[in-house]
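Lay summary

Proteins are chains of building blocks that fold into shapes. Our project writes down both the chain and a compact code for its shape. Here are two examples, one after the other.
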Amino acid sequence: MRYPVYKIDAFIRQSVNGFSGNPAAIVPLREWLSEEQMQAIAAENNLSETAFFVKSSEGIYHIRWFTPTTEVDLCGHATLAAAWVIRNELQDLREIIPFSTQEAGNLTVRALRSNDHETPLLQLDFPARPGQMINNPLLQQQLEQALGQKVVAICNARDMLVELENEQALHDCQPNLTLLSQLDTFAVMVTARSDSESYDFVSRFFAPRQGLDEDPVTGSSFCTLTPYWSDRLSKTRLRGWQCSARGGDAILQLEHDRVLIAGRCFAYMKGEFSLPGDSA
């Protein structure tokens, strides 16, 4: 038996001439594989995330996300990429694509209107994950040692948010991943106010404990970054740039306990794969 697979770049930067965004592998299924099989496929793909989904009789897509080493509770870029596949390959052209998840509740992706010359925008509707500010001199010292930069503020949600002095400090940051992996957190997002008029803030995302040294673009991080910068900048509509080597853009809006995260996708590759032991 052979299974379809798509490699989609999510949260691409239209202003950049070259590959950008975060690649995700998307695997539509008619029925579920075992967790062991899905984890093995994700390890074989060796991307930050592989997403699997199965459509229910009610038209809802149940989605699960796997890094090369573990299943995660929420992933933005792979959900955006899955919605692109559902609309463009599976021809489900509903304005709103509904998803259900293992732990993050119900999610949706809306297709937004855009100019004809632009790649269409897809908008995630995700739960806000505001963090709690932390005043811990010892933790600040550990973070400054791990990041090699002065830490301005620390905010803890599922992931730890760390604000640096300025955008240049964020670009210059070369973290000690061994030290970061020793911190009691799923991942560390590092952020600063943007120097550019094009963006409100910039960020990077490190998850060495999950097998991801630096994630190119992390949709779920905006669930915490958006309420954080909304409070800091006194505005509910924001533009963020995750300034990894590939980089990615997100258009953000805070609506009470939800974060709307819009981005664009580029379909790089599609194909098929088989599992070991299956007949060719």
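And here is the second example, written the same way.
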Amino acid sequence: METAARTRQNVRTERKRASVHNRTRKVLWCWLFIAPQLILFLLFTVYPIVMSYVYAFFDWSGYGPLQNFIGWQNFKETLTDPLFWNAFRNSLVFMAWLVGIQVPLALLLALLLNSSRMRGKVIYRTVYFLPVVTTTAVVGLVMRFIFGAYKGLANEVLMRIGILDKPVDWLGSADTAMLIVILVGIWKSFGMKLIYWLAGIQSLPRELFEAARIDGASALQLFRYITVPLLIPVGSVILLVSAVNALHVFDLVKAMTEGGPAFKTDMVDVYIYRYAFSGQGEARVGFASAAGVVYGIAVMFISLLLGGLVKLSGGRTNKGL
């Protein structure tokens, strides 16, 4: 009996060891497949973020050792630089107009494309989503030619139909440059917001709409009393994502205007790039890092504020339902 019991115990022990060994192998294989992406993430995302906080306390050009420690001087210069606050204000203006126009417009179009009466929905979705997958720098260069001062397509068309008498320097004028950048930004990322809204609309329970139709609710009443309340949590997240993404616009502005004319379209990302990598004199990576840290903290504060609104709206909606 004792021998049989020991044999069973040994078998259980061996099985347990084999199970632990198999789980360990699976975990190791998982880490092996994750390792390349994790290493790249640490090298090109985490490490630059951490080092930017270090560089911000040095007067460093990006070459040579870190020797000239200047403390908070870069931060003081950033906070007292009118050009930084001009770029910060432009970033907020760009974000406000882009979100204010793009988010509700994408919602209305998503409602149309979700309608069962709409034909060719797949084609429309593809057309609206194509700018999203197009390289932003390429879009900026193309738009630079379209809105060119003299032989641009926009001026040619508007002059042919009689709206303009002479060419307009759309991107070279302080009155129109920001407007064009905002309109191109809205067009470029419109398809992504459309997909977000479509996903939210298609996740709504159909039985609520069917019951409301049976009770005689009109299309406007369905939208006001069912669609809008149920979409508030999704819409809050879309608003948050859109706002944060709009606060980081670099490649589009760099390709279209480079922050001009007279810094009218200068954004914080372009401002940081100009000091860190521009050929205008010696590069100031330390100062650019300080500006990036300040702007990062500001974006984090805006994100927390909008995140609080998301949580508040979601809680109210849950209570209402």
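What can we say about the second shape? The mean pLDDT is 86.
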